[in-house]
Amino acid sequence: TAATQPSTNWHLKENAREHHTSKFSGDELVVRRGQAFTITFNGTEQPEQNLIFIAETGPKPSKAAKTLATFGISSTASTEGWSAVLQSSSSNSVSISISSPHNAVIGRYRLSVQAAASGSPSTTRLGTFILLFNPWSSGDDVFMPSKDECEEYVLEEFGIIFAGNKNHISSFGWNFGQFQGDILDICLSIMDRSLYYRQDPATDVSHRHDPRYLGRVLSAMVNANDDQGVVLGNWSGTYEGGKNPTSWTGSGEILQSWKNSGFKPVRYGQCWVFAAVLTTVLRCLGIPTRTITNFSSAHDADGNLRVDEFYDAEGNHLERGADSIWNFHVWNESWFKRNDLGPSYSGWQVLDATPQEESGGIYQCGPASRNAIKEGEVDLEYDCPFVFAEVNADCMYWNYDSATGKKTLILSKSTEIGESISTKAVGRDDRVDVTRDYKYEEGSTKERDIFKKARKKLGLEDKFDPTAPTPEEIEQKPDISGKFKVAGSPEVGKDLDLLLVLANLQSYAKTVHVKMTAWSTLYTRRPVREIWKDSISVTLSPKEEKQFPIKIKYNEYQQQITTDKTIQVTAICHVEDGVQVLVQRNIALDNPAIDIQVLGEAKVNKEVDVEVVFTNPIDTEVMDCVLQVEGSDLLTGILELRIPPLKASEKSSTRFKLIPSEAGPKHLLVNFSCDKFADIKTFKMVNVTN
């Protein structure tokens, strides 16, 4: 017989304080494994020592799978399994301290108590609670010794994501919001909708004690490929039927939409969206996680640690072959032990939810030990060769003649890929460079030795490589050098001023025919629309350097530019009696500025006014202006405000009210869009007091 007792007291406040779960808003107990929590319930007629507790999770609880535990009252907490210690008892109630093991399966548990009396035992359901990973506990695989790091990588709901390109790093805020509303519930449903769970629910649940397993499963579930996961990727440059990836400001709206639509993939995401949503899910479950941006990131589709880019004689970047070099790519690092690889591979692990290449037949990536990547141990699980290539591949730039199918190597570079690898600082809104944690100094012998070691492990070093350049192609030295210089900091709405600088390296005159193009691209460098082209012929005297100013007017690029605001300029220099020289530059344009002011002091449960100011920087009217505002603990959900059209140079000032719900440093995120400017983002830290 089973009776439900509504009278269980879960001591929500006290337990949450002890377990660092106070920020969850529901009325269900949320605790962390390997740590005691206290509950009180109505006394049974039996003496306490006769009580047996049953904690179970998943669809088919079993002791063998460690998804079912039965335990009596003992004098001290067990370090091995589940245990219960009597705190106090009176004639009508019992207080018990329950401890779970450090390696318990995480998820929602059902708790009941049985009185083992003579005759038939009666079972009483006490209710449900949720068990999470515990980075504060030294026995847990996700243990993080630094309290400040736990605070940032588990409890912080605001993040900064770095973007742009290696010459011009930009950043924007993101609201992870892992403690808001029913995000925890949604994270639990994500686990229950994975392919692994559908194939074998009981086994899947029994593996949920392992951050390595869950990290991999969730990297697959955050993208929609294979499993109707959370976010559908789109890198086409047109985003009909969904939201432009650059328009999101937080994970909450995405996870809520996924749930509210009956678990249909949310349209659309690009790399930072996948990484930000995975950060939310893993922080929510208690695995310390952060986003990492890699600049000049290689997508090595054929696994030869080399990426090839092709250009035609006019200087157009061709979409040939599956390899590509992205201006930036965002992935995740999560912190946990690698019991499968050994202590030297524990610590930060790379996970990537962006669907780039299949692994084990589905789009998932990692965990790849960051230490293994640095040491070139590409044979270690999981997906180390792909991640190693992202930060280390060599680049080959080819001239391709579509008429003859002939390709000629223009140049190769071994120091181009994997620069300024970036993440947000702990406790500050600053950028930290972690490139040295991924590789030894670029160009050092150690770094080249590691690259050779990786090639050897992948069986590449003695293979004949049909795409490798022949010796005579390699040895030709260029007679001239070239580079593009960008004047000032380029901004959408302004003309783009460049200089092409050409220098004759020889001691005799050289004639050069230059073909130049400018294309709007996605951040993946995929060309979208041609903006401009030109050609010049020039004779350079011995050792002479010449500069050629180039102006691309706003009205020339305004219709062509994508919401990624990136332009690739290329010059192919055909040198008479010499080898071709390729000069290219990826330019990330900044949006015009937008400003937030908090008018007055922000106090808990008190209204405070906020003003957002935007000045139209161009000489035509802008229409369809929309302001989107969000921020955990500052407002619920997303505030959307429509703003009237703005004439040339007109300034708009928009006011709205916030009612903060919690004290501490909180972040307000603003996104402004109109017909001429997409997704102008900014954020402001608001210090809320009681």
UniProtKB/TrEMBL annotation:
Q: Spell out the Basic and acidic residues composition-biased ranges.
A: 11-23
Q: Which GO terms describe its molecular function?
A: metal ion binding; protein-glutamine gamma-glutamyltransferase activity
Q: What is its EC number?
A: 2.3.2.13
Query: Which keywords annotate this record?
Result: Acyltransferase, Calcium, Metal-binding, Transferase
For this protein, the record's InterPro entries field holds: Ig-like_fold, Ig_E-set, Papain-like_cys_pep_sf, Transglutaminase, Transglutaminase-like, Transglutaminase-like_sf, Transglutaminase_animal, Transglutaminase_AS
Transglutaminase-like domain: residues covered: 263-355
The segments labelled Disordered in the record are: 1-23
User: Which residues does UniProt mark as catalytic?
Assistant: C271, H329, D352
| Reaction equation(s) it catalyzes | L-glutaminyl-[protein] + L-lysyl-[protein] = [protein]-L-lysyl-N(6)-5-L-glutamyl-[protein] + NH4(+)
**What is the UniProt remark on how the cofactor binds and its stoichiometry?**
Binds 1 Ca(2+) ion per subunit.
Task: Name any cofactors this protein relies on.
Answer: Ca(2+)
Q: Where is the composition biased (Polar residues)?
A: 1-10
Say yes or no: keyword Manganese present.
no
Top-tier EC class: transferase
| Alphabetical list of Pfam families matching this protein | Transglut_C, Transglut_core, Transglut_N
Q: Where does Ca(2+) bind?
A: N392, D394, E442, E447
Regarding protein family, the annotation reads: Belongs to the transglutaminase superfamily. Transglutaminase family.
Name of this chain's protein: protein-glutamine gamma-glutamyltransferase
User: Highest lineage ranks of the organism?
Assistant: Eukaryota, Metazoa, Chordata, Craniata, Vertebrata
Question: What gene, per UniProt, encodes this protein?
Answer: Tgm3_0
